[in-house]
Amino acid sequence: MGIETIMVKDLREKTGAGVLDCKKALEHTNGDLEKAIQYLREKGLVGAAKKAGRATGQGVVTAYIHPGSRVGVMVELNCETDFVARLDEFQALAHDIAMQVAASKPEWGSSDDVPADIVQRERDIYRKQAEAEGKPPKAIDNIVDGRLKKYFSEFCLLEQPFIKNPDQAIKDIITAKIATTGENIRVSRFIRYELGK
């Protein structure tokens, strides 16, 4: 049975779980929504979105120096308690995110952080490109949205494909960690240094 996007969207809205987790749950349960919700609950993936508003006053600052010492990164990853901040899996997540920043050069944390004037500039460029390509006028808005989403996946850390598993976005690995730790986790800030730049 093929899993349709609308089914994934519906499950995501009901559970707050990540897109890939919803798709996997629906595939596992042959498209049965109630069983998919139960599957996600058993895996601890329901409710991660509900934790997103909780304060994150603890965490770690992790430094990563890429072999060759030409690229260095610092990442602040926050959680709710110092207990979780000391967990090996939390420290490993911080290290993975620092490696991601070193490799993928994000400019912003998420699509919400991209200044409105830059979003509008990109929209205008994509609209002109689609018109120049002779795309049907009815399809242009969808084409612009698709290209803007691709832009975000290239320049926004949370939307980038994870370098260790490109099938998952960084926000999905954070959501999975929220589910296993039971605490809100967020990337507060990061900085990337490259020798000579």
What's the arrangement of secondary structure elements?
Layout: H1 5-15, H2 19-28, H3 33-43, E1 58-65, E2 71-79, H4 82-85, H5 88-104, H6 116-132, H7 137-155, E3 161-162, E4 165-169, H8 170-181, E5 186-194
Antiparallel strand pairs: 1-2, 2-5, 3-4
List keywords for this structure.
Helicase, Ruva Protein, domain 3, two-stranded antiparallel sheet, GTP Cyclohydrolase I, Chain A, domain 1, 8 helices, 51% helix, 3-stranded antiparallel β-sheet, 197 residues, Tetrahydropterin Synthase, Chain A, 5 strands, alpha+beta
Q: Into which percentage range does the β-strand content fall?
A: 15-25%
Mass-distribution shape: flat
Ends: how far apart?
Answer: 51 Å
Q: Give the proportion of residues in helices.
A: 40-55%
CATH H-tier superfamily of the largest domain: Elongation factor Ts, dimerisation domain
Low-pLDDT stretches are none
The structure class reads alpha+beta
Secondary structure tally, helices: 8
CATH architecture of the largest domain: 2-Layer Sandwich
Under CATH, the topology of the largest domain is which?
A: Tetrahydropterin Synthase, Chain A
Strand order of the largest sheet: 1-2-5
Level-1 CATH class name of the largest domain = Alpha Beta
How many separate structural domains?
3
Instruction: Summarize the main sheet.
Output: 3 strands, antiparallel
List SSEs in N-to-C order. HHHEEHHHHEEHE
Radius of gyration: 19 Å
| DSSP summary, beta strand count | 5
Overall pLDDT metric: 86
What does this structure look like?
This protein is an alpha+beta fold. It has three domains: 5-47, Orthogonal Bundle (Helicase, Ruva Protein, domain 3); 51-109 and 156-194, Elongation factor Ts, dimerisation domain (Tetrahydropterin Synthase, Chain A, 2-Layer Sandwich); 115-154, GTP Cyclohydrolase I, Chain A, domain 1 (Orthogonal Bundle). The protein is 51% helix and 17% strand. It contains eight helices and five strands, in the order H-H-H-E-E-H-H-H-H-E-E-H-E. It has helices at 5-15, 19-28, 33-43, 82-85, 88-104, 116-132, 137-155, 170-181, and strands at residues 58-65, 71-79, 161-162, 165-169, 186-194. The strands form two sheets. A three-stranded antiparallel sheet has the order 1-2-5. A two-stranded antiparallel sheet has the order 3-4. A hairpin with a 5-residue loop joins strand 1 and strand 2. The termini are far apart.
